[in-house]
Amino acid sequence: VRGWCVLAIALAGCFQPSPPRGLACETECPNGETCVDGLCHPEGYTAPDADPVDAPVDGVLAPDANLDPDNDGILTPDDNCPSVTNQNQHDEDGDKFGDACDPCPMLFGGDEDTDSDGVGDACDPQPAVAKQHWVVFEPFTSASTMWNYPTTGVVANDVMTLTGQTAQLKIGAKSARIFVGGTITNVSSSATSHQFGIWPDSTTSTNQYYFEAFDKTEGPENGFRLMAFDSVASNYIKLDEVLYVPPLPNGAFAVQYDYSSVQQNVSATGKFGSQTFTISSGAAMDLAIPEATSISFGAYSAKATIQYVAVLESVP
Ligand SMILES: [Ca+2]
Ligand SMILES: [Ca+2]
Ligand SMILES: [Ca+2]
Description:
13-stranded antiparallel sheet
């Protein structure tokens, strides 16, 4: 009988001298553990304070510095990013998460972050691969030294307004997803061409791969397009396009432009007014896509009222 019992213990652990960790106990727990509030815990464990000192008392906040752990002057119960310093509390998409801690700051909801890389699934080129991070989210609450503006005053009232102008964001990336959104209107009914574009620039190469919405009334070139510019041959190469009837569709617009010098491809998706598009360069080309060292945004014979620009980078 004894032999059977020893064998049974070895195989199935049928004998337990005291309750296992995390299970109910009265006083007794395994060696190295202690019984607290009816459960076994590692020794040294203390029960959480049932009545934290910083809890509101009769509707009045206790004078405790812990209520503002990020020191932005906004007490935690009212802070839309309780652990990130964000004094302006700006919330671009109005989803109650401040831009500073919102994993997808320009899209209401969509904040699940499956791979926990800080970029919400709805914004993430690889939602199940933790390789992304936000480089910048720009809600235009104030002028920023990260930009070269065409004129002073283009940033006001939480937007950047470009009318026949280009603004340059002084950041780069090897592999980036660029978001821009706002509203667009054509400025002159007599203009024969309208354009909105995103031009990643490079200090190491004069090759350019850009997105544009472009139309010319005298020509057949109307559409949302991905273009390459070969500066050596002074040659423009159309990579892909979705046509629209000119002029440039007005109304709300949003563009998501993927630019990769690592994968050697570009693609874009978005909408202008009711016109949507999805375009892609496809396979790598002979004309190398350079690492972007800055990113320009421009509107011509059109007024772009830009509410946000955001850039995330994928680490190879
Ligand atoms: Ca905060
Ligand atoms: Ca938000
Ligand atoms: Ca993610």
